[in-house]
Write a structure and sequence with these properties.
Largest sheet: 10 strands, mixed
CATH architecture of the largest domain: 3-Layer(aba) Sandwich
Helix content: 25-40%
Radius of gyration: 20 Å
CATH superfamily of the largest domain: Bordetella uptake gene, domain 1
Number of domains: 2
Number of strands: 10
Strand content: 15-25%
Shape: globular
CATH topology of the largest domain: D-Maltodextrin-Binding Protein, domain 2
Length: 323
Amino acid sequence: MFRKTFIAAATAAVVAAGSVSISFAAECIAPANPGGGWDFTCRSISKIMYDIKVIDKPMQVTNMAGGGGGLAYSHVVNKRNTDADLIVAASSATATRLAQNAYAGMTYDQVRFLGSIGGDYGVIVVAKDSPFQNLNDLVNAVKADSSKITFAGGSAAGGFDHLKVLMTLKKAGFDAVTKVKYIGVDGGGDAITQMIGGHVQAMTGDISEVVGFIKNGDVRVLAIFAEERLPGEFNAIPTAKEQGLDVVALNWRGLYVPKGISEDDYKKWSMALDTVGKSDEWKASMAANGLMPFHKVGDDFQNYVGGLMKEIADLSREIGVIK
């Protein structure tokens, strides 16, 4: 446990230096199958924590897919509420499902949100041989006959990936959003597999989930939901805004911890995540995976998530996802 790790004098010295050292066998749960954004969050952050010696043992990563993150959430709340050696990957998709009461009545205050150290912009992606050359080609096909176009995403129906599609179509003047065909699978990797296999016509997810597939030439990104084009190697990807559809969707990438851990343990994890977020290693990982800076850690982030959930609930009612 955390407690046996810290000696008062050593802790004071570490805090003064702006970093933290943790000695224990910790675990990060990714609430999806390998290959998606939650998996990326766990594996990237835990690796950097070890590389920069925030922890002195490699962290175990456990994939726990199910219910758009609901299985992992229930597991943490009901079985590991006081486990101070546990962190869990989270994102805007987590807040979306909680705002829509999709986790069987569970609420966001049953865990403690730790922080986010990067933002992942949404994308609409098609296979390399798709007939759709831009976002409007795809949107017009849905408007012409929605039964012929199916989207796959790494969140459950009504989740954040689904909302990106519905917001885009509403901007294009398509109001029959309940007719849009969407398949929610366990993670962005599964969604891309469905699309490459020809089972769906488009994938909705986040840029970090498709980087490897872009580099391999397996997919084409029709649009990114950012204010402006990303820098560097992603600069060729057009925004939805420049194609006449004013949709911006930022998916923060972060963590939560069990609510029942001590305040000291929460602060130690906050310090650890803050240290990763300020590291050169994390900055390099963001650049390589199309993430943008989005750094909120500790109680400030918990309050942010509460406000975000209200916005999501209001939007979900507006487009008919919830009543």
